[in-house]
Amino acid sequence: WAAVDYKEAVKSKSFNVNYADWSEVNTAKSSTIKKVYKYVDWEDVTYSSLETETLDEINWARVDYKEAAKSKNFNINYADWSEINSAKSSYSKKVYKDINWKKVDYSSLDTDTKTDINWAKVDYKEATKADDFDLDDVDFTEVNASKDVKSIYKRFDEDILETASVDTLTGLSESGKLSSQQQTTVDTLLSGHTAKTTTGVADGLQAGGRQKIRADVIDEWSLVGSGDHHMSNQGEDLIAKIYGTDTTDLTQSGDYLI
After folding, report:
1. What CA–CA distance (Å, rounded) separates 1 from 49?
2. What is the mean pLDDT of each run of 10 residues along the chain (258 residues)?
3. Is 195 within 8 Å of 237 (Cβ atoms)?
4. How many helices (H) and strands (E) does the chain have?
5. Which of 50, 97, 202, 227 is most buried by its number of CB atoms within 10 A?
């Protein structure tokens, strides 16, 4: 499979990357490997139908991510980020550069992906523009050890900081990497968590509409079920309760109660 002309093969409607023996491709001479990965149309790959063996044997450091990102079913969970990080510096750097971090679906990142991504190499100018970007996903041990730490922290404005959990805010506060303005914002957010527990929850619920409440600022809560009912003296089903406050349509989403 290292000798196949992929420039021609990809023109066939029946060609599928699952047919190739990627272990053969990856052990060929360097120029051959480079040519194979260049000629595969990574936009046309159906990533959701890749077999386990294919996923394991593709060298994810050599995939063209500018092309892959154009595929409707590509997401970065398919990539082997440990392989990318251990690749030659030029390949690893290119992968992180070519990923469109604004279009990453951060809410669907699996545990391995979150762990294996080198968060010091992410483009935060792009990432922080994503609606679901979450500071809680970031490994700040990697970021704080990076030579680019100042430019990374620069991207964390007040709107981004407000989404962080108490643990993340505490780590940021103690990092020594925040600007004076960011430090003030973070310390204010941390001091406000106690107040949110006693007043912010009830006020938010009474405001109506789709409210977003951090579960980690509530001392005690339990999610019981789902539906349109609320706790009442008439014996209706309990959907959920933040102790001391009866609620309607309250469900859990990640770190939040919605």
Report:
1. 20
2. 92 93 95 95 94 96 96 94 96 96 94 96 97 95 96 96 91 95 94 53 42 50 42 37 49 57
3. no
4. 15, 6
5. 50
